Prior knowledge:
The relative contact order is 0.08. It is built from 27 helices and five strands. By secondary structure, the chain is mostly helical. The model has no long low-confidence stretch (mean pLDDT 92). A five-stranded parallel β-sheet has the order 2-3-1-4-5.
Amino acid sequence: xxxxxxxxxxxxxxxxxxxxxxxxxxxxxxxxxxxxxxxxxxxxxxxxxxxxxxxxxxxxxxxxxxxxxxxxxxxxxxxxxxxxxxxxxxxxxxxxxxxxxxxxxxxxxxxxxxxxxxxxxxxxxxxxxxxxxxxxxxxxxxxxxxxxxxxxxxxxxxxxxxxxxxxxxxxxxxxxxxxxxxxxxxxxxxxxxxxxxxxxxxxxxxxxxxxxxxxxxxxxxxxxxxxxxxxxxxxxxxxxxxxxxxxxxxxxxxxxxxxxxxxxxxxxxxxxxxxxxxxxxxxxxxxxxxxxxxxxxxxxxxxxxxxxxxxxxxxxxxxxxxxxxxxxxxxxxxxxxxxxxxxxxxxxxxxxxxxxxxxxxxxxxxxxxxxxxxxxxxxxxxxxxxxxxxxxxxxxxxxxxxxxxxxxxxxxxxxxxxxxxxxxxxxxxxxxxxxxxxxxxxxxxxxxxxxxxxxxxxxxxxxxxxxxxxxxxxxxxxxxxxxxxxxxxxxxxxxxxxxxxxxxxxxxxxxxxxxxxxx
Length: 519
């Protein structure tokens, strides 16, 4: 329902044009210009909740996190019963890592309209991430009482059954849902097929799981312009390989010398590697140390350095890296740290800031140009297990994980990313260490001590109980459900159950099996 304030704005042609320009700036990533536009609009139209929400989004983009928070709070004050805006605000608070505020927005959405499936499922999804599965179940059951045939709610109930380990029941409900073929949207249909594959995998019915997984991937591919995303990825990979080929040990040494006079107050450690290589497990073990402040897949490096503060579509070439002056490098470091720490500029007294984020491993040359003293930890895992695990992921499609829509491109993605690591390892000149998932699982304390000492810290006994601390934290990674359990070995050798599907790619993966000790 439109408010009188919104109707007044819509009668003002100049204000409408100004709003449209601000929205265009926001969508294009020109957050500074967008923020200026929203500030001007809100002088004359302070009662429009949507303006406050969009101003908050622009403020996040300019790293004005306190202004973003105050904008969202004003939006909540003006639109306390607008479920859509409340859910959107909750999602933005999640992006800001203000977890209590995010939960509050989802709870407000349910309170505003208990009959809203959107509100109930948004809260259920959040509660499940907090491992409050019973509370999440209650939200879903409330939604189904009012809307017993809603496809989204039925899918999410099956998901919670899977989370509870009741896979036979989950399978039955998913098959009935798929048989009905009545979907609220195509994305839920894809997710239902994917979930059935995951359920069948846990039930030990791998050939059937693979059949449903292929179907899910095919459906998802039809929802996006996969060819365009693949081309975008291929262009990036080609530029990256040119950069890697032109690097020399002397260049890396020169970068380090240029920054020798600008040490940071805290040590920065980058925890990279390929997705699904045990990165989250290592992050949780190291993050359990009282001297470590760990960040679980933050967007700071990608947003503030990789994409470039000056040009979102910037391509980093060797010429550009060499041309980065001291002042610009300091500016990039400052933006990165402000984004990483948000408004907590002290880092809570931590000796080490641990940035765990697998995909930016592809940009290791840029890391080393801006942070030449950074320490790098690369978790490794049997490449065949990594490929199978990545292929089983159900992620929003981007130019990176579009590769996970086929086994062939999943293998290619693994090769592309790990070729970066092999090249950087060959060049040397920086502090790095590798750790194997299988070694962590086999002897957590011994491997954990080795990694902790690499960060110039002493092992803390509490690190061995990392899963106890993980239960009290909100984990952003897709493996959030697994890291709250004691270390287990059942994921080792998972690829053998899919050996037939992997057979066409074994020759290509053999290079990496040999390089990392899995031959």
